[in-house]
Amino acid sequence: MTGNNNFKKEIFLTFDDGPSEKFTPKILETLKEKNIKATFFVCGKNVQRCPEILKENVKEGHKIGIHSFSHKRSFLINYKKEIEQTGEIIFKTVGIKTNLFRAPWGICPFYIKKYLREKNYSEIFWTIDSKDWRGWEAKKIVKNIIKKINSSQREREIILFHDGKECDINFDRSQTVFALKDLIEEFLKRGYSFSSF
To answer: Annotated active-site positions, please?
Structure first.
């Protein structure tokens, strides 16, 4: 945790859909520069593609959560297999048994919630969607988040970013990287503290 710890408001930076070979390292570099820890909800298929990136992620002290294996609509049917498979891949790659879970697209029907409770998973949603998945420019992403922060009465904010794009390898998250740098500077100026799950 960094920043002014006496300030009651805190920010949780979270990233979905990775790891990605191109953009996750840039995000990790930005977080390292400011000594900030975040939480990454990974897709099993992408961990298989980029195991070394996940290892670096854990080495830097960030938390890891499950975000399905395939990030396809079939997850809603094959959720048990996808969650367990991804958990096993994470464990085999970095030796961590995570109990953090975020559903693809934030869709988590009652039957999946029931399974998560039975297996002692913590379902992590978000309070602010950066909308970086829309392909917005960094300035628009920053403006969107600051507007929501300014109107919020919550003591903690969980911000949703993406360092991947489902299980696609042809995508651009450079605007997320640029926005993250500006947002961290703004939050530090305001005296926010940063936390991970």
So the answer is: 16, 162
